[in-house]
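Write out the 3D structure for:
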Amino acid sequence: MDYSVVHAPGPYTIRILGQTHHKIGSLIPQQGRLPEYLQLYIFDTSNEVRNRLNAMEKTSVEGNLDETTLWRLIEMIDENNCLTKIFRRARDHYEGVRTEFAIRLLPDKGKGKEYGLPSTSEVAGLIVGDMSSTIGVRDIVVRFQSDTLQQIRDDHPLYMSLQYPLLFPYGEYGFHPEIPLHLETDTSRQYYASQIQTRLNQGKTLIKGGRLLHQFVVDVYTAIEEDRLRWVRNNQDFLRAELYSNVLDAVRKGDTDAKMIGQRFILPPSFTGGPRYFVEKYHDAMAICREYGNPDLFITITANPNWREIKGHLLKYGGDSSNDRPDIECRVFKMKLDQLLKDFKYGTFFKPYTAALHRIEFQKRGLPHAHILLWFGNSSRTPSEEEVDEIISAELPDKEEDPEAYNLVTKHMIYGPCGVINRKSPCMENNVCTKKYPRPYNDYTSIDKSGYVLYRRRMNKNVFVVKDGTVLNNNFVVPHNIKLLKKYEAHINVEWCNRTSAVKYLFKYITKGVDRATAVIEKGIRQLPLTQWPLANQKREL
């Protein structure tokens, strides 16, 4: 959990460094070491509560655990979880016979129902003696006593149940490749998407997991990405990756040392987030611009956690905060975005567009937002003052004439406070706001030499808003459209961008991908080739 990214209330932030994987250890701890993880079910169970408290106190920063609650959770898991039952059988065997044994976790449920709760005999077996001939490729074998850990494959059906016993108290089978499927693509993604749906006739343990649900979703996402990358790695011939010859490329670059040449896997343009994916999207955007000219409007819409649809869902199905349900926030945002694009297509707020392009991103504080480009014609002309003022406003509405518009603008479209009145704002660098707020007053709309519109911001001391104890007026208003605000009740920034000098920046901005950092690795005097890594992997690779 990373608390340094979010400076305001919002969804939890989880940072991943390197590859996400789960490992499992031995049944009995090494001599002189305290039990931990699954060993708590088998070793020294007469002091199990105290052992669990000791294990948690090493890492917990949320305060002391309640012993009564912990004991009730142990009883619940013992009674219902099929995996726990096999561990308890191992405890009885260890305390009674004292011979070496192992537990084999099976990848198949046998002839049981596909979606029925598994029994102990279907998911595991207690093995005494030699077991080499009974181990399958995808089985998990937990040794009696070992100082090494073995990694659990992300496609094993017990992958999530072993990691999240409180979210899956019955030890349910999760996704595995043998599940019958009517469609032929994105099997794991479809399974997990179905799993986090809210259903009145089923338990809500998973969707009420709070912060643990966030961790589960991140874990699921990495498992899906691992599955997609595995498919790409195993289907290089199908992707015609031989066109990117490793040896020929190395010779062309002058790399004559064989130790510097490794096996290379090509990510196709269909892999979301890959380099060829972004290049393809950028070229598509340039083709649209070549056909229709420069775009007219640049619109950014950000999800609002307080949308009535989200609040209504939480009220009906239960939930303390919308930030505990990132899946609902994303689903409602996607529905709103689809409706917004439909409104643009049919000319609900301004004339219908001739072309449109949009991209969804996620803020560092966890909320989705979309950048949208709209074309209104096949020419790159300079708009008139009246045309801009009809679509875009950068002023506070009159509170008496239109109280609804005033409340929406003050709630969603006020920037800051920053600048001289708040030098500690995150947007400040060298005592100057990076977003150029507060903006200067203008009596009329005009266009500067760089092609950026200077919107009308008249000085009006009678119209203001108090934010964080500071009085703000028109020079802190983000450009917007009142009709859009009234319908969608969210932060929607509307900018006119009809100039060639701004086109490349706009297309690069909406197709730039993740942040990246450049690192140089040196050994002695010789400098190795420059390599770029995503920021998420920076620490691991360095």
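The radius of gyration is 29 Å.
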